[in-house]
Amino acid sequence: MDLELPPEARALLDAVVAIGSDRDLRGVLTRIVVASCELTDAKYGVLGIVDDDGAFTELVPNPAVAEEFAHIKVLPTGSGLLGLVPRERRAIRIDDVTTHPDATGVYPDRHPKIDSFLGAPVLVDEKAFGHLYLGNKRGGAPFTARDQALVEALARAAGVMIDNARAYEQVEWRRRWLVGTRDVGSDLTGRARVQDALNELVTSLRELCDARVVAYVRRVDGLIEILQVAGDQAAAPEVIERLNTEIRAVVDTRMPTRIPESPGNATLIVPVHTRLAGGAGAIVVENAHETPSLRGVMLDLVGVTALQLGLILDRDQALRDRAQLLVAKDRDRIARDLHDLVIQRLFATGMQLQGARGLDPSELRGRVDGAITDLDIAIKELRAAIFELGAGPVKPLLEEVRSLLSEYAVVLGFQPVLRITGPVDRALVPEASTHVLTTLREALSNIARHADASSVVVEMTASSAWFRLGVADDGVGFDESVVTPGHGSSNLAARAAELGGHLTVTTAPGEGTTLEWVIPAVG
């Protein structure tokens, strides 16, 4: 005999099936609201999602009020009737909102007026995921006990489906991360490829987190250096300066941190551990978009990215250390060979002179003079070669720049920010590096004397063709049509011109000054 389900049971079953057919979390949440309105004949419905502290982070309305809610742009604070459901942790049904003692009667602009009310918590593993609110049953009638029972049953089923949708979204997010980073670091031959790998990592992370800025920064000798940036390049220095204290704390404690920015958005700062590469670093993911599913896993996967980045840096440093060791071994071998050659040459010359004892004086004198001349020349050449080989490598440009910025931090009264792009240590010959340091010193001196600045950003960028030094301050600036450039600026322009480059100074009163000094990368 066929059994006919009651209309309420059939409607509830159809709603559960419809909700379960969607794997996307946002789609599941929207279907829950729509199904609740259809089951109870409610005109308005919204699901308020809360965070771990119970604060609302997002509202999912039914289509009837979606446009109004898009203009409200104000999340509820949990007071009034909306706060009653979280406090009671049970379904609440009110026939006349205007007579209820918890009703404030105050609504944001564009919010529909509510007469009757039905609310129920949506729990996932006995923890509040959100709260379902329905208003104004069609026809003006109040919500019934049947409506409440249907909403309570739907909310219990919705908790299970939300949990499944969250798990699916987390798995999908991890899959996207693996796809985006699986080939990063597969070929690290050469410094340029290492830079490409690091840039690809931060770019993939920014896209995955839907963040405004993702940056890899490193602290060396008190300086916070910006090494890689993805997203809003212009905003990166301001972001790093604003988060300076938090970045230093993460680097010191090696503990990641999450900083809430706004509902559904947070900034993540994760330490980057390296064993060989100099300086302690961190990945900064600024203003990342956190869905309810990803709030608990995003920080962990950023940590995995930081681990991958650290391994790339360590491998690159190990390869460079090995290359330097091979060079050092070759220097020792060549120096040893040269010393042996000198000794052997002297010994051979001595033997020749010893065998010349029986020659007549005039012939002997000529042979001795010739031997002395040859030995003097050989000794000078060998001594020069030995001195050149025995002398260690000059200080890298980056190390010299850091020292210079630390020196001027005392003069300026604050620490300049250093930003590096590309292999700056290998882009120039030593003579050109000297010009870079002189230019930077002159620029910092001018800022200290004239700019009255509170921050300075120093950028060094190296490509296959050009090397760029940029120095920007937020000082008083000046009117280029009134102020005549001094000898310092003229000297900097002359230095750049001698090397085949150019100098550009951009400024305006009250808008700071930016100096760009560009020369060919070959030095």
Output the strand order for the largest sheet: 8-9-10-6-7-11-12-13-15-14
CATH architecture of the largest domain: 2-Layer Sandwich
The best one-word shape is elongated
Written as H for each helix and E for each strand, in order along the chain, the element string is HHEEHHEEEHHEEHHEEEHHHEHEEHEE
How many distinct folded domains? 3
Computed over alpha carbons, the radius of gyration is 36 Å
Note the beta-strand portion.
15-25%
CATH superfamily of the largest domain: GAF domain
Describe this structure in words.
With 523 residues, this protein is of the alpha+beta class. It folds into three domains: 7-169, 2-Layer Sandwich (Beta-Lactamase); 183-393, 2-Layer Sandwich (Beta-Lactamase); 397-520, 2-Layer Sandwich (Heat Shock Protein 90). The chain contains 13 helices and 15 strands. The chain has helices spanning 7-20, 25-40, 63-72, 80-88, 145-181, 191-209, 236-242, 244-253, 298-354, 361-390, 397-412, 430-451, 487-498; strands spanning 42-50, 56-61, 92-94, 117-124, 127-137, 213-220, 223-231, 257-262, 265-272, 280-289, 417-421, 456-462, 466-473, 502-507, 513-520. The strands form two sheets. Strands 8-9-10-6-7-11-12-13-15-14 form a ten-stranded mixed beta sheet, with helices on both faces. It has a five-stranded antiparallel beta sheet with strand order 2-1-5-4-3, sandwiched between helices. A hairpin with a 2-residue loop joins strand 8 (257-262) and strand 9. It is elongated, with a radius of gyration of 36 Å.
